[in-house]
Design a protein that fits this description.
This protein has nine helices and no strands. The chain is mainly α. The chain has a domain of about 120 residues: Alpha Horseshoe (Serine Threonine Protein Phosphatase 5, Tetratricopeptide repeat), CATH 1.25.40.10. The N and C termini lie far apart (about 45 Å). The N terminus is likely disordered.
Amino acid sequence: MQIMFRTFYYSLFFAISFMLASCASFEGSQSSSETARLQKFSAWQLQDVVTRSRNTNEAAQDLLRQADELIAENQMEQAAEKLERLLRIEPSSAQAWSRLAWIALKDNRPGRTQQMAQRSNSVAYGNKSLKALNWSFVRRAGQYADDDDLVKKAEDMIKQLGFTMGKS
């Protein structure tokens, strides 16, 4: 049963990843847009799915799955509500904070985007792909807010994490 759940979970992420990649994808090098999509996919995937399935509250896992389904259906407000409920159960969910950052970016709320992305990064620990994705959200938020210092800081952080980005 647990293997079926993981298989379903991965399949769901494949579908969601392609939808999200067209909206706010991680900006890899311009010559490799497919690599950028794969980086985003791996960043949003639960890096430690096996550990999480043993240690994470089942309700939190269910809320993340529901939020992803709502995001896939472009129901961002409802997805944000699920993510906020999840964070009351598991405040250190880097995945939930990252999704909230992305939703804020889609809503053109640069301040909230930066806040949620930085919160995600503070609990993402060794997940460099997720951190780089979050910094790409911060970079885009800086561009929306015409904040050149924030854009530069985000670009520097992405480079420190070992990723490259295209100019946009």
